[in-house]
Each structure stands twice: as C-alpha cells, then as structure tokens.
User: Fold these one by one.
Assistant:
Number 1:
Amino acid sequence: MRGNGLKLIVFILAGLLYSGAAWAEKAKTVEVWKNLFTLTHGEGIDSNTTFLITKEGVIVIDTRVTPAEARKVKEEVRKQTQLPILYTINTHYHGDHSFGNQVFKDSHTIIAHENVRKALEYEAGKEHLDFFKTLKIPGIEETVVTPPNMVFKEKMHIWAGEYHLELIHMPGHTDGDLFIYIEALKTIIAGDLIFNGKIPYMGDAYVDDWIKALDYIGDLDAEIYIPGHGAPGGKPVLIAMRHYLIDLRRRVKVQIEKGSSLKETQDVIRPIFQEKFKNWKKLEWLDSNIERAYMEYNIK
Ligand SMILES: [Zn+2]
C-alpha cells in the first residue's frame, strides 16, 4: 500500500494543495507558558515554530519555509535570551517545517525521525525544494536543503536545563512525524499531526496511522496542544482534529461499500464537510483529502 503509486498522486495533488497560500501574514509570537513560545502565521506558509528556553540554552522546533522566515525566528529568540541554541528539531520533512534549517546549522544538532533525513537528502530533498520553488514563495531561492544530522527510530529523550522532552515517532501526516511531550508543562508540540482551524494537508498521509497517533497523544496527560498550523489551544484542538479524521474515514468507507466512484464520494462528502467545517481555512483541500482516504480504503 505504501508504494510509488501513492507518491505519484501525492505529487499531482500537492500543486493543488499548496496553491492559494496567504503570502502576506506577519508572524505572531505567542507565549504559551513561561519559557515556551510559538510563532504562528508568517510569510509564505503559515507553519508554526516553537522554542523553549532552558537554563542551558534554547531548543527550536521547526524552522519555517525559508531562511528569511527562519531568521525572524532567531530574532524572536534573541528578544528573549542570549543563551545558545542547543538543538533544532524537525517534526517532519515538509519544507514549511524544514527549509529554514540552514539558519540553525550553527546549533550543530538538527534532530528528526530517520525518515525525515531520507526525504531531505540527495534527489528526494532536491525534488521537494523544486516543488516548493514552483509555489513562488518569497525567499525560497535562497534555500539550501539541510537534512537533520541526528536521527532516531521510535523515541528520543532530551534533558536540557530544567526540562525533559520526549520526542516520539508516530506516523500519520507523513511517515516520519514526531511529536514532543513535555510532561512538566503538560504540553504536546504536535507538528502537523494537529492542524487547528484548518483542513489538514494530507498529501502523504495515512488516515488510520494518523488516528492512532492522535489516540496515543490523547492518552498522555496534557493540557496544551501546539499544532503545526494554527493557534495553540487546549484539548478541544486535539478532539476536533481527531473527529475530522474519524468522520472522513467513516463517510469514505460507507461510500466505498456502496460501490461509489471517487467523484461520487467527493460529491456526497464535500457539501457535508463544507458546512460542518465552514469556519476552517482551506476548504478547497477537502476533495484531495477525500481522495487520499478513498485511496487508502478502496483496496481491491
Ligand atoms: Zn506538513
């Protein structure tokens, strides 16, 4: 199931999915807890960056879509502290979370799941950047793909200053997602396993895995959920994301059992979801999400 056929469709869909991004929104910095900050919005693509200030130094999670945007993150860090940046982490390989890596190369440690390195090194990384270049994001030409230089398979622990971070691999949005659990802060930094107020990007997603990941996250003792896109929030942010995926899976399966074509399935589910999720951004991504789920469950 996880073969090249899917990859081809991902590529075709991706152009549709990323088109229409808002270029002009300025980044906003939210102080989530003491010492924990999230930059939301930003020019190019609205992916979030989070940073934690420990007594020993700073940990940066995701690096935005261009070096220029990444430098803005560094400026935000420097407004808060002059301590060194100890670690940079990519929650997954997508360019809007990793193409600013070169700006954080001086931290010497860029950490991710091993599949992130595979997706960003050699030809794969070049192709991913080439795709982003077609989107004409301001500043993208400056990007030098910089894969993580420290990877893990299932779980990694970081102790820094007064904090303990657990980096846990759970695929779903991609095959190399990680989320970060900081138990002392009851906080989950979810990467793109959670979108808040936005239809999720599902270009290389697996719905079943994604729901499993959210079930796992939901069992952890947490109060704050920092999504990959959209504002940080409480448990409802997690519940809404999980509900979206479960409802998508259920409705697509019903149509497949009835023998509906992809187009018929989209025509049934699209209007229901347009109404149900009318306050979410990127409703134009619904058709491709329905297609992604249809591909996953329509196994003959
Ligand atoms: Zn993503």
Note: The domain at 4-235 is CATH 3.60.15.10 (Metallo-beta-lactamase; Chain A).
Number 2:
Amino acid sequence: MKAAVTTQAGNPEVIQIQEVALPQVKKGWVLIKIEAFGLNRSELFTRRGDSPGVIFPRIQGIECVGIVVEDPSQTFSKGQQVAAMMGGMGRFFDGAYAEYTLAPLEIIFPFESKLPWEVLGAIPEMFQTVSGSLNQALEIQKGEKLLIRGGTSSIGLLACQLAKAKGLTVIATTRNLKKQQALIDNGADQVILDEGIVSESVKKIYPEGVEKVLELIGTKTLKDSLKCIAPKGIVCMTGILGNEWTMESFTPMGDIPSLGRLTVYMGDSKNLSKELLQEFIDEVEKGFVKLRIDRIFQLDEVASAHQYMEDNQATGKIIVKT
Ligand SMILES: NC(=O)c1ccc[n+]([C@@H]2O[C@H](COP(=O)([O-])OP(=O)(O)OC[C@H]3O[C@@H](n4cnc5c(N)ncnc54)[C@H](OP(=O)(O)O)[C@@H]3O)[C@@H](O)[C@H]2O)c1
C-alpha cells in the first residue's frame, strides 16, 4: 500500500511517500481501508520529535474514516463505515497517513452516513475534543457566556457552533481581524482582537466576566483568561496553539480568582460514545452544523499539508483524501 511515512524527526520534508506492506490482520484489531483523515496540530509536534515515546519511522495520523476490510472478531462486517481515533494511533502504532490501517477494536466507532468522505474525515477528533471540552470539562449551560480563545481554529469554530446551538453567547478571539467576518458568519456574537491580553476588552463588554472560557492558545494566555471569568467561572485549557507547554511562574492563590476553576481537557476516544458520534454526523448531514473545511489534500501531499498547517494558513479543518 501507499503510505506517507515520517522517516525521522524534523521538518515536513521528513514525511515521504513510500510503498509499504499491508498491515497483517491480528486478533482484536481491524483492517480499515482509509478514505480520508483530518490533520491535527499534535501531529506537528510528533513529526518534530516532541511526542515522548514515538519511534521513527512511523506512519502518523491520529484519526481516520474509512470502511472495514477485515475484522477477525466479526464485531464489524466488511464494508461497515467506521472512524478510528487516538489510543496511540499514529504514535505508538502506525496510523492514518496511508491507504490502509490496522486499529484496535476499542478505538473504532461504526457509523452510517451519506456525507462525502472529506466531510466525515473532519469529524472524529474535532467532535470528540469539542464535545468533551464543552460538555464534560466546562459543563456549558444555556444562557452562559463563553469566551473562545483561538476562535479561528477548527476546534474553536466548531465549539462556537455547538455552544450557540445550546443557547450560549459566544465571544471569539483572533490575532487577525481580517478573520472577524468568518467568525461572525460562524455564529460568534462578539469578536475580540487577541494581542495577548483580552481581559480588559472582555470586562468592558461584561463587567462581571464570563462564565466559561475555552482556552486554545494555552499557557501563554492562560493567566489572562483566568482574569476573564465571573465568580465560580471555569477556564478549560484544551489547546496549546501558542506552542508553550510550561509556564514560567504560576501562583494559584493569585492567578486563579477566588472561587474560580481551572481544568484541562486531554481527549481520548473513551470520552466519546458511538451514539453521540452518530448523532453528530446526522446533524451535519441535516445541515444543522456547518463544518468548516479549509482545504483538501491528497495522500501524496501530506508533507505540504503539514507545512500549510505550520504556516497557519487555514481557517478550518485540513483534510487529506486517500
Ligand atoms: N486536548 C485535546 O484533546 C485536543 C485535541 C485536538 C486539538 N487540540 C488542540 O487544540 C488547538 C486547536 O487545534 P486546531 O486543530 O483546531 O487548530 P488550527 O485549526 O490549526 O488553528 C489555527 C489557528 O490557530 C491560531 N494560532 C496559530 N498559532 C498561534 C499562536 N502562536 N498564538 C495564537 N494563536 C495561534 C491562528 O488563529 P489566528 O491567526 O486567527 O489568531 C490559526 O488560524 C491546538 O492547540 C490543538 O493541539 C487539543
């Protein structure tokens, strides 16, 4: 089969197209013919060699959608549409950047849909992350105000739509006001320019602060995000777009306002149910949710797709079709 293999840690050029052996089917694992997959920021870190425990060469890709070719357990029949995500895929065993992958049963989600593969490819990891962050970590409720820090990211854009559908007011941030209209079109009630500090602008609009903050920039802006919350408000750090994993100093009794709450979301396929994924796919199919797909690449172009993501050229999900 054809695969985009990350041959060693480095720049996008280390991803090379190669002919490799089809994975050998084994008990507890399912052979999937991949139709499409979304690209994820964490895959940039893995490619650079920043994911502990990953050994190269490796076929990366932490998620995919496709059809079952063979399942020795007979849990899934041949031809069943499935998504696979996380659980070490593309890190500790070969993943989605290929025509076929072998994935363990526990990370496989069956579904049925007539949506094009490139749309389905955008869904698994993005939906799992947004749904987990909003519902499980932030426990969003109708009538609340949600600040999305990193609003133009694909996670931010979907979070806005799901929060609006639940009846929240959404304030989205960007560093680039040229993207303001895209954020409004996506449902944001207010857009704030993010040059590192947004708490002053937020407090001008909502002097009491907002109930919830989805922090996608990470440690760089976290302290300022904590200044945006109302009493008993919650900040959930889900993303690290700012590329800084560690904070130089953090003073809990000072940086977290009294009664404020700070949490993180680290997605896992276990956080998502098969029913919830199917429900979401159906909503996309009915047009209730509009997924923003920025660009579709082919399998031969995975290295270019990595460069495109690294250059922050996308507003929405980057997809690769096999
Ligand atoms: N915790 C989890 O389980 C989980 C799962 C999936 C993803 N994530 C994380 O969620 C975040 C969003 O992922 P995504 O795939 O949706 O991202 P994305 O679509 O690639 O985000 C692109 C946007 O990020 C903003 N950005 C890029 N570099 C930045 C920087 N240095 N400082 C501030 N903003 C920057 C840019 O917005 P502007 O130019 O408009 O400012 C850009 O348009 C990532 O950090 C990702 O790793 C977490």
Note: The first helix runs from residue 41 to 48.
Number 3:
Amino acid sequence: MIIRPLHADDTSLELRFLKGLSQQAIYERTFSHRGKLKPGELGRLVRFDVRNQIALVATAAVEGQEEFLGVVRLARSPDGEFEFAIIVHDAWQRRGVATRLMKTMLAAARRAGIKRIGGVTLASNVAMQTLARRAGFAVSRDPEDATAFLLDIGL
Ligand SMILES: CC(C)(COP(=O)(O)OP(=O)(O)OC[C@H]1O[C@@H](n2cnc3c(N)ncnc32)[C@H](O)[C@@H]1OP(=O)(O)O)[C@@H](O)C(=O)NCCC(=O)NCCS
C-alpha cells in the first residue's frame, strides 16, 4: 500500500472506487443515501483548488492495476476552518488503511501550517470515533445535533 496525493488525472480510478463502495459506507461518509453523482461532481472530486484542499489516496496494485483503497480529504470551509473526511473501501477495512491515511493527512496539514482540524461523524459510527481518538482527536457529542459527534485536533 502506498499513500499519495490525489491527482487531476485520477478520474477513472476515483470513479471505480466510488462505484465499488457500499450504501452503508457512503451513508457514513456523506450522511446521505444519495448514490449517484451529480453532473460535474466527479470532476470536482479530482480537480480542486490545492490552496483549499488536501486529498490523499491509499492505493495498491490489484491484479497488476492500481486501485484506490481509501481517500482522506481535508478541506477549508467557507468560514476558514479545516474539516476532514475519510472513507476506506469495504473490502479493505480493518487493515490499518485509515490509520495510515490519517497519519499522513496530519503530517501534510502540519507542513501546510494548518493549526486546527475538525470533523463530524455519526453518533452511531463507533469505528470513526475510535480511529479519531487513536489519531489524537478529541471526540465529543455535538451539543446541537444528537445524531452527530464532533472531532477536533490542534496541531
Ligand atoms: C471508519 C473507517 C474510515 C475506518 O477505516 P479502516 O481502514 O477500517 O480503519 P483501521 O483499519 O485503520 O482501524 C483503526 C481502528 O479503528 C477501529 N475500527 C475500525 N473499524 C471498526 C469497526 N468496524 N468497528 C469497531 N472499531 C473499528 C479499531 O479500533 C481499529 O483498530 P483495530 O483494527 O486494531 O482494532 C471505515 O470503516 C470507513 O470508511 N467507514 C465508512 C465511511 C466513514 O464512516 N467515514 C467517516 C466519516 S468522517
């Protein structure tokens, strides 16, 4: 497995990755059951302003072809805060892929001078809460939303 930045020419690998995800993983990542991409959405996933987003992929050669195992994104929201989101393909979960992606994302954020990272996860998503805690994030209930937990780390 290698971790590398997502490139603008990764469209077909990204599409194959998205198509292979389970409804459950999509829901936990996006908090929505919407399975289909909107027009232009795929392009925006691979071509983004690098001043506002860091996107890293974990990849491996599967039957001689590079395949995405997981993706972590760290994006600046309109209010200037940085928020991360992560997803690992169902078939590759529980093998340390997210742990490696989180570690690399935190190192990249430090290098970029980012001082604080936030995140949101479902209250039911114990896997993400455990992963975040292990990566050094504070994990707390969202006082404004009983279905959500907030993740926060100072760098
Ligand atoms: C959450 C998620 C990213 C974890 O990815 P992963 O690559 O499986 O995580 P790792 O293998 O690095 O696991 C790290 C630790 O997290 C915890 N963990 C991971 N999956 C778990 C699960 N299904 N149940 C309980 N704990 C879990 C474990 O403590 C694990 O360590 P261990 O395997 O030594 O016990 C993955 O399950 C996923 O993509 N889920 C769907 C999308 C999502 O929920 N994204 C988060 C929204 S921000």
Note: The chain has one domain: 2-154.
Number 4:
Amino acid sequence: MRRIAFINEKGGSCKTTLAVNTAAYLAGLGQRILLVDVDPQGQSGKSLGFYVRDLRPTVFDIMMDDTLPASAAIRASHIEGLDVLPANKHLADFPTDAAALTDREHRLAAKLDTLTEYDAILFDSPPSLGLLHTNILLATEEIVVPVNLTYFALDGCAEIVETIETVRERFNKPRLEIILVVATLYRPTKLADEILLRLQSHFPDRMAKTVIGYNVKIDEAQSHGKSIWEYAAWSRGAHLLESLAKEIIQLA
Ligand SMILES: Nc1ncnc2c1ncn2[C@@H]1O[C@H](COP(=O)(O)OP(=O)(O)OP(=O)(O)O)[C@@H](O)[C@H]1O
Ligand SMILES: [Mg+2]
C-alpha cells in the first residue's frame, strides 16, 4: 500500500488540489483509495462535495478517541473507489487536546495501520508546521511538495526539507522521503521562470516534469465539488493533472 502526503507549509500551494485530483485519478484506474484530510480547513472533503462543517466523527475524533476505529469516520465519496476521512475546524484543537498524550505524534499512524483494504492512502495537509504535520509524516512514507512559484516559494521548501530530516532521524523513519517537487500556479513571467530554474537546481532529481500552469477550470471544479475529470476532462488543467498523476504512479 502506498502512502503519499502532499505537504508544504506555505498556504495556497495547491496541496488540496493535487491530493484530491490525484486521488480521483487513481480511483478512476480502479484502485481503492483513501484520502485523509489532515487540515482543519476541511477542503479535501469540500472539494468532493461534502458539507464538512457539522460532520462527526471526523479525523479529529478518531485521533482523540481510543475506542473509535478509522472506519467510523471514513465515508465513501461519489467517485467509485475513493473514500474520504474528512476533517473540519475541530481538528484545530488537536495540538492542545493531545498535548498531554505521550503517543500524540503517532495517533494518526496508529489508526491507519489497521486499514488493509486500500491500494493507496493520500494525505492533504495544513499550511502550518506542527503536531498535525508530525502525525502525517509518521503515517506516510512518500511526500509530494507542491510549490507555488512566488518569490517566497523556496523558503517553504527549506522548512519542509528540514522538518522531514528531523522526523526521519528522531523517529527512525529512513524510508520517509520527498519523491516529487511540483511547480504549481505557473504563469509565464520572468519571475516565475527564475524561481522554476532555482527550484530545478535545488531538486535536480526530484523535480516533476509536469509544471501545473494556471487554469481556471481547476478552481471551478473544486467550487462544484468535482474532480477535474468530472468537471472539464477536456481542459488543459485536466491534462496537466493527469500528467502529474502518471509521474506519481511511475514512482511506485
Ligand atoms: N492550476 C491552477 N489553476 C488555477 N487555480 C488553481 C490551480 N491549482 C489550484 N488552484 C486554486 O488555487 C487555490 C489554492 O489551491 P489549494 O486549495 O489546492 O491550495 P492549498 O495548498 O491546499 O491551500 P491551503 O494551504 O490553504 O490548504 C484553490 O482555490 C484552487 O482551486
Ligand atoms: Mg489545502
């Protein structure tokens, strides 16, 4: 079973977009996929048409309650083969509520370890580093880092590389690694091209060949609670997200 997390501490770098659409693509190939939302914004669930605001139980409940199995919070999405473990704003309480628990960093991994029915588990992550991230890093093995090509993009990359190294050593997880760095929201400007070049020289072996250009259909699809293939399969955005999903598949 593959476990792939989409992580970048910078907000708006397309973590949710890539997690949801990659999950939908893999499910479309006939795989059984679980998408775990570990962001209090709950946008993975929202992107698939769930009204997450009042949802219980969620990923927060299974992480806090020893008696609740992960299956209690997992819901089938409208896409065949794609299940979701949703989040909502309650998850923001996790760092405080779990502070006294000695296994607080392992709560998510422990619950997911009992699941055997999936071909892959994908994780959407919140935009700030902390206890939720540590839980994701201990539950995953592969990491995809989406990078919005803006001036501060490289700052976020340096942070995540450092965090991963710390977690790998502190928790003895030698297999935890960045498999791909993906440039997102690309527009053909001099600054974007410069940042792209710097990223490529920073991650020569791990830079995705696919550069996700700006395409409004991607945004629209999310606002309709649909994957890009349901909403606009013919669009440039769909082709780009498919190309990226294929790169991720090839890295298995
Ligand atoms: N290629 C694209 N073209 C146009 N809009 C896009 C594209 N990719 C993502 N978006 C839009 O950009 C916004 C930010 O994307 P997304 O929510 O995936 O980022 P995020 O990293 O998950 O943000 P956060 O850190 O807040 O969780 C969303 O409204 C999304 O629909
Ligand atoms: Mg998000």
Note: Residues 2-250 form a domain with the Rossmann fold fold (CATH 3.40.50.300).
